[in-house]
């Protein structure tokens, strides 16, 4: 019985340890109460304001409510605190949704993960962070997913180009850091990039460096092909590029005294062979391209815990946007990638199709409205010429009446003058 009880206790401990840790979850489901959890920085006095809204189109009017940037050409700085933890020996998963419903031209859509000692009231662009992750768009040239990792006080950008989504719909962004120094980036619950933290970032010095003592020998010949020293230029090779036209005839009316001495025009020489060059042959002394020998880098030191952060305690939105309107929602920090995927499917996965349907419906209504307005303008334009014609006819009648009145007056004056003469 003692043995059986001990085994059961061990099984319960193992089960408990296997339970995923949920460090932070924010879906803005309690109205304006989010303002008690999120702290706006006062480092600047002109930060843009976040508002809670599902946006102009959505899949669910309540579930899709998130923090939206509301003022153009502003910096934004707001953060939320949670119980501090370390990811040592554990997987770290960061996940959230971003919707650029304003068709963003230039601005950030990323989050920052800070150590617990961050002064939230003074958070700003230079505040030390652990990880910066998420989309960044600026014009047609910058459409990337930032994955920046702080290692020993220095920020390191990923060496790969991870493309972000640039449409107006909601997208799910997920970063997974594993305790074996590997990582994975997912967009909409699909892997878009993965690899090694050591290989895909310049975090550690290179393992090998060029040997500073090694120098290419002076007689090292890297030419694969050389001119044949036995090849000689043919004696009849040199021909002029242009010659006098043999078919040209001096005009009969040509006057040497008046026109000068006649010379035939020049034409391309069909026998011209161009500049002679000796043929190429394989270089018998060719040794191949000289490769600078490498040695072990004395500055390199392996680190099996690049992924590790001793203190993680704040998530923040610290960014700049030219055109506002981005909505952030469904924040999740956990140590379980499967849980994150399930939460993504329960949130973004449930509302993405209805959201798109609503957007398409709005565009269709807008299209019909514009068509109706265009038809109205055309009808109005069609009526205008008829009105102008009627006005012209009325003016002509008035002119005729005036002419008739003038003629009658003139006739009366002539009659009166005749009477006077008589």
Explain how this protein is built.
The chain is 26% helix and 29% strand. It has helices at residues 2-18, 197-200, 256-259, 337-346, 348-421, and strands spanning 22-26, 38-40, 50-53, 66-69, 74-85, 92-100, 106-108, 111-114, 131-138, 142-151, 154-157, 170-177, 182-187, 190-196, 208-210, 225-227, 242-244, 266-268, 280-282, 294-296, 312-321, 326-334. It starts with a helix and ends with a helix. The protein contains five helices and 22 strands. It is flat, with a radius of gyration of 42 Å. The chain has 422 residues and is α+β, with helices and mostly antiparallel strands. Strands 1, 3, 4, 6, 12, 13, 14 and 22 form an eight-stranded antiparallel sheet that branches.
Q: What's the topology here?
A:
Blueprint: H1 2-18, E1 22-26, E2 38-40, E3 50-53, E4 66-69, E5 74-85, E6 92-100, E7 106-108, E8 111-114, E9 131-138, E10 142-151, E11 154-157, E12 170-177, E13 182-187, E14 190-196, H2 197-200, E15 208-210, E16 225-227, E17 242-244, H3 256-259, E18 266-268, E19 280-282, E20 294-296, E21 312-321, E22 326-334, H4 337-346, H5 348-421
């Amino acid at each position: 019985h003692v043995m059986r009880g001990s085994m059961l206790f061990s099984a319960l401990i193992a089960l408990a340890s296997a339970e995923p840790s949920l460090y932070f979850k924010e879906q803005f489901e309690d109205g304006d109460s989010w303002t008690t959890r999120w702290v706006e920085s006062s480092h600047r006095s002109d930060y843009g304001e976040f508002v809670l809204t599902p946006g102009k189109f959505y899949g669910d009017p309540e579930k899709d409510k998130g923090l939206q940037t509301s003022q153009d050409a502003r910096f934004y700085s707001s953060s939320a605190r949670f119980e501090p933890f370390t990811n040592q020996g554990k997987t770290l998963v960061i996940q959230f949704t971003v919707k650029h419903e304003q068709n963003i031209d230039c601005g950030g859509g990323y989050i920052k993960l800070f150590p617990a000692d961050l002064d939230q009231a003074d958070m700003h662009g230079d505040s030390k962070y652990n990880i910066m992750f998420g989309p960044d768009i600026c014009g047609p040239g910058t459409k990337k997913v930032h994955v920046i990792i702080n290692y020993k006080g220095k920020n390191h950008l990923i060496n790969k180009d991870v493309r972000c989504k640039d449409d107006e719909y909601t997208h799910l962004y997920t970063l997974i850091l594993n305790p074996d120094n590997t990582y994975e980036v997912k967009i909409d619950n699909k892997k878009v990039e993965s690899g090694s933290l050591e290989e895909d970032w310049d975090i550690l010095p290179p393992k090998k460096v060029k040997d500073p003592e090694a120098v290419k020998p002076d007689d090292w010949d890297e030419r694969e092909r050389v001119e044949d020293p036995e090849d000689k230029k043919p004696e009849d090779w040199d021909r002029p590029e242009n010659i006098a036209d043999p078919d040209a005839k001096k005009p009969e009316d040509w006057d040497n005294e008046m026109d000068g001495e006649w010379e035939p025009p020049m034409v391309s020489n069909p026998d011209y062979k161009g500049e002679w060059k000796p043929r190429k042959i394989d270089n018998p002394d060719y040794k191949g391209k000289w490769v600078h020998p490498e040695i072990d880098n004395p500055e390199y030191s392996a680190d099996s815990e690049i992924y590790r952060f001793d203190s993680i305690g704040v998530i923040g939105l610290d960014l700049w946007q030219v055109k506002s309107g981005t909505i952030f929602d469904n924040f999740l920090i956990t140590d379980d990638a499967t849980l994150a995927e399930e939460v993504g499917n329960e949130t973004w996965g449930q509302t993405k199709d209805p959201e798109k349907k609503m957007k398409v419906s709005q565009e269709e209504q807008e299209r019909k409205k514009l068509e109706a307005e265009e038809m109205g303008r055309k009808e109005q334009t069609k009526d205008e010429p008829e009105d102008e014609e009627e006005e012209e006819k009325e003016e002509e009648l008035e002119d005729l009446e005036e002419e008739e009145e003038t003629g009658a007056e003139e006739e009366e004056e002539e009659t009166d003058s005749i009477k006077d003469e008589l």
